[in-house]
Inverse folding.
């Protein structure tokens, strides 16, 4: 099972629920491994607006109704 016993952010939980890997999100969003890892594992991390937009565009390929507020408190 994906994400078993891991502390995950809302984005990380979203990936786990869909059995997607962080590297898939990295490829599609063209965001660095370090940033994606932080966004998926650090519940306090809020990326810059430009990074949020790149990640959200990649997420919307799987869920067209996804919103920034689904992943980050704004």
């Amino acid at each position: 099972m994906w994400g078993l016993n891991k502390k995950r952010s809302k984005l990380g939980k979203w990936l786990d629920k869909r059995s997607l890997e962080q590297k898939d999100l990295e490829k599609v969003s063209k965001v660095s491994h370090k940033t994606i890892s932080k966004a998926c594992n650090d519940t306090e991390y809020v990326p810059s607006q430009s990074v949020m937009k790149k990640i959200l565009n990649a997420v919307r390929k799987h869920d067209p109704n996804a919103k920034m507020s689904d992943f980050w408190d704004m």
Summary: The CA atoms of residues 26 and 34 lie 9 Å apart. The chain has four helices and no strands. Residues 19-64 form one domain.
